[in-house]
Write a structure and sequence with these properties.
Strand content: over 45%
Structural class: mainly beta
Number of strands: 11
Helix content: under 10%
Distance between the termini: 40 Å
Order of helices and strands: EEEEEEEEEEE
Number of helices: 0
Largest sheet: 7 strands, mixed
């Protein structure tokens, strides 16, 4: 009974910016690592950015210096600020979080995805 809901996707021009949000709700006791993944047409899903509980971050090389992941633990929300967007950033972006429920069951949860399209 945990849901992750992404928002903020859409159309942007190359060089532009978008900010994705992902809010977790439901029977949540605690949230561990949170992250963003993406899947472009015809490609495998890849990890874009991960943030740990102590706010350490990891980025895929292709977005370093352009994307910033952050989290608001009070709101159970993770963000992805995407700047200097490129056409190759076009993909469906998925939110992921490791959640421990109130019954102390822990597992990874996924959002349904939000489409980001960057035009050249």
């Amino acid at each position: 009974q945990v849901q992750l809901v992404e928002s903020g996707g859409g159309l942007a021009q190359a060089g532009g910016s978008l900010r994705l949000s992902c809010a977790a709700s439901g029977s949540i006791f605690s949230i561990g690592n949170m992250g963003w993944y993406r899947q472009a047409p015809g490609k495998q899903r890849e990890s874009v950015a991960i943030i740990t509980t102590d706010n350490s971050t990891i980025y895929v090389d292709s977005v370093k210096g352009r994307f910033t992941i952050s989290r608001d633990n009070a709101k159970n929300t993770v963000y992805l600020q995407m700047n200097s967007l490129k056409p190759e950033d076009t993909a469906v972006y998925y939110c992921n979080a490791f959640v421990v429920t109130r019954t102390y069951s822990g597992m990874n949860y996924w959002g349904k995805g939000t489409l980001v399209t960057v035009s050249s």
